[in-house]
Each structure stands twice: as structure tokens, then as C-alpha cells.
Amino acid sequence: MAFQEKQNRFKKQQEKSASASHNGRNPGSIKFSTDTERLQHVNSIRKAPVGAQMKRVIDLLYENRQALTIEQINEACYVDMRANKDVFESMRKNPKIKFDGEKFSYKSKHDIRDRSQLLFLVRKFPEGIAVVDLKDSYPTVMEDLQALKAAREIWLLSNFDSQEDIAYPNDPKVPIKVDDDLKQLFRGIELPRDMIDIERDLQKNGMKPATNTAKRRSAAEMQGISSKPKPKKKKNEITKRTKLTNAHLPELFQNLNNS
């Protein structure tokens, strides 16, 4: 829409200029204060470094998502690649840009355009696909990722190594059933009570702990603060003297019933 507005404005300026010339008016009698300011702005853009001009073009193509000619790019963001060969060659070789010999367009890592194509792509990566590789696919891709997550079509999980989100497919055609024996085995694993032991086990398995308890305790001891783990309090059991206010939860009173 912004590109179309600038194009329309450019056409109106051409029409006004042609009309003034046709009527034989003296161009010097026309007020050019606004136009002079615009020309100064255009001149500053065209004198900017190659990298700065490239960024303007790439931003335009990213937001527009259309294939534009050199003239259309010049009209929209005032970068004249026909006059500046360095900008033209750099844009032509840029890995994020596609040039078909006539028009430039933005080239995302994955060529998808809508939510259905996004879901189809994620399902092709059962081991997961990095969200950072999807962000520039199309303008509303992040909203579509959240919508697919809400619909339980995909999972969005964080990678412990890079702290980046990974999209995983949740294909209903491939249901996953976990045996009760495996569930009991998982729930029966008792973790060490001391964080140092937990961190040591993580390191043995090739994982980097997010904490450093030994260092934290050493610093605390230097400041005279005890950092030893507090003894685990014994869980209070329900006795016959306990007032029964949660009668709707019978499993809480097994000890009472058996006593």
C-alpha cells in the first residue's frame, strides 16, 4: 500500500509538471519549498554508503513481498540502482534477494505464503525446525505459528543449547502411546536432593547446567551466609484428630482409614 501511494504521488507530480509546461508558465514562479526538501532527502539517500542503500531496498522488498523493477524501487525508496552500479551488483549477489534479470524480490529461506503451507512445512521436519528460519517467510508467519500451537497442530519448544524456539509437528495420524510401565519408571526416578549432584549428573550426560551451585555457595560463605540445603520437612500426616474439611478428596484419608 505504501509503495502504491508513493507511485501515485510520483505520477501526480509528473502530471503537474507537464501541465505547467504545457500552459507556458514560468517554472520559477512555482513554489518549490516542499519539493526542494524532498530532493535534498533523495540526494542524501543516494550519497549514503552502499550498505545503507541496500538496507532501504531490502526493507522495501521484505515489507512489500512483490517483485519490483529498478524504476519501481527508485520511486518507492529513492535508491537509484541504475545510476549506482555498486548497489545494483551487491543487491544482485545478496543471498536474501532474488533477481530474475528484470525484477528484484525478497527471498526467504522457505518459500511459503500462508498457514496451510506453514503447517505442511513443519510436518516435513519431525525432528523440529527452528522458528528463526521461519520468521521471514511472510508477514504474518509468527501469528500463524501461535495459532497452530493453540490449535494443537504443532508444538513450540525451546532448545536448551541455543534458547531458541523449535517448531515440532503434532500429527494426529501418528498417535504416541506411552506404556504404564514406562510412566511408572519415569515417576519412580528419585532426583538427588543436592543441586550439586544434579549439576554433576547433567554434565556426565553432556548437558550444561543453567546454574553453578558450588560457585554460588562459595560466594555466600565468603559473605558469611549459610547456603547448605535445608533439611526436608516431614510431610504432615492426617490423624483422627484432624478436622475433615476435604471430604470430597477421599484419597487424602487413606492413612486415617487404615489406622
Would you kindly provide a written description of the structure presented here, covering whatever features stand out?
With 259 residues, the protein is mostly helical. It folds into 3 domains: 2-19 and 31-106; 115-169; 178-259, no CATH class. The protein has 11 helices and 6 strands. The chain has helices at residues 2-22, 33-46, 50-64, 70-77, 85-93, 115-122, 141-150, 180-187, 195-204, 213-222, 254-258; strands at 68-69, 97-99, 103-106, 129-130, 154-158, 165-169. It has a 3-stranded antiparallel β-sheet with strand order 1-3-2. Helix 3 (50-64) packs across helix 5. The radius of gyration is 33 Å and the shape is elongated. Recruits TFIIH to the initiation complex and stimulates the RNA polymerase II C-terminal domain kinase and DNA-dependent ATPase activities of TFIIH. Both TFIIH and TFIIE are required for promoter clearance by RNA polymerase. Keywords: DNA-binding, Nucleus, Transcription, Transcription regulation. It holds the Pfam family TFA2_Winged_2. One of its GO terms (molecular function) is DNA binding. Residues 1-32, 207-259 are annotated as: Disordered.
